[in-house]
Amino acid sequence: MPSRERNWAGNTVYRARELRTPASIDELAGIVTSQPRVRVLGSRHSFNDIADTDGVLVSLVSLPGEPELDEPHRRVRVPGGIRYGELAPWLHERGFALANLASLPHISVAGAVATGTHGSGERIGSLATQIAGLELLTADGARVRLERGDPDFDGAVVSLGALGVVTALELDVEPAYDIAQTVFEGARWDAVLADLDTLEASGDSVSLFTTWGDADRIDQVWVKSRGAAPDLSVFGAVPADGPRHPIPGIDAEPCTAQLGEPGPWFDRLPHFRLAFTPSAGAELQSEYLVPRRDAVAAVEALRGLSSRIAPHLLVCEVRTIAADRLWLSAAYDTDAVGLHFTWRLDVPAVTVLLPEIERALPASARPHWGKLATLDGAAVTARYPRWNDFARLRDRLDPQRRFGNAFLERLGL
């Protein structure tokens, strides 16, 4: 590549010698079968080298295909390169919706699913749990379709890009719905941690935001609900008197509507609107997901490090994800709580701080596959009971390691 491509944050420069944008599945198959190393580049919203390669990068944005709605089975088939911000309004116009969305609508469906990306909701799984079927272009150019219930399906959904190119996905849909978003301020950590279940059950999606500048109080609680806004006064929280951005001091215009105003699901579930730069823009991100049983211990560990974390932090978000059976999902076999960090764009400082956080968190913490972490590969894979099964699946689908890269090699693949 004459000019080196970067990820969204700019902290990762891709090593690939070329970026290709095939215009057909046949052209894509020709690239895959003729190159020793290939990786797919999605919306670039990863903060490590999971999408990188020393070979050829492939973008799916030019592949033909439109969403196809199967109303009787309540599914929609989409091309792998589509973004949620494109799919969601298309679905809504036809009277359908997804069960949940991530905080950013800018991300691609295939990339989000492959890394186990999620929204928030104690009864709602990660975005990968919406997948009912997928189509893979494997290393030999074959097209393989897997659907829910097939023996390999649970291993192939959160795939880290290691099994092939996801050219199409089928997602579960439901009738379109409205949802309202209310922001609360001033909740006390002691009260919340004493009854975390009640707070998390107060809406369909609940996010706790803190800058850790005050280890006793939570800056904001965002509640997205299909019903009435809850009363959180028992936690010391009161509704905000105007729109808020999760990061203090930033204009709230990029954020989705608040103040309890009902609106379409796709315009409330994300934190940010598609038309704006997501989040802060110049930032780094890390996230660790812990089993629900370890959530209080994990938050208390962060409270103990608050003076170390706060100087480097833009905001920390705490949210819940329902358990699933997808082998490499961070919520595999356990309801989970995500501890998400949006850092200032200071790679050296964050690199020094992350090992302190990882030592303080419970040993059950699983790093998000697409974000910054410093745990070694063996420590990460030991936290996934089906890791060896995934490795065997990878051996069958990509024996030549055509989709391998340095990220996977650090994990023992």
Explain what you see.
The chain has 413 residues and is an alpha+beta fold. It folds into two domains: 68-176, 2-Layer Sandwich (Uridine Diphospho-n-acetylenolpyruvylglucosamine Reductase, domain 3), CATH 3.30.465; 178-378, Alpha-Beta Plaits. The chain has twelve helices and 19 strands. It has helices at residues 25-34, 84-93, 109-114, 153-156, 189-194, 196-200, 295-304, 306-309, 347-360, 377-381, 387-397, 406-410; strands at 18-20, 38-40, 56-58, 68-70, 75-79, 96-97, 131-137, 143-147, 165-172, 174-175, 178-185, 205-210, 220-225, 238-239, 263-264, 284-291, 313-321, 336-343, 366-367. The strands form four sheets. Strands 11, 12, 13, 14, 15, 16, 17, 18 and 19 form a nine-stranded antiparallel beta sheet that branches. The chain has a five-stranded antiparallel beta sheet with strand order 4-5-9-7-8. It has a three-stranded parallel beta sheet with strand order 1-3-2, with helices on one face. A hairpin with a 5-residue loop joins β7 and β8. The longest helix has 14 residues, at 347-360. The radius of gyration is 20 Å and the shape is globular. Its EC number is 1.1.3.41.
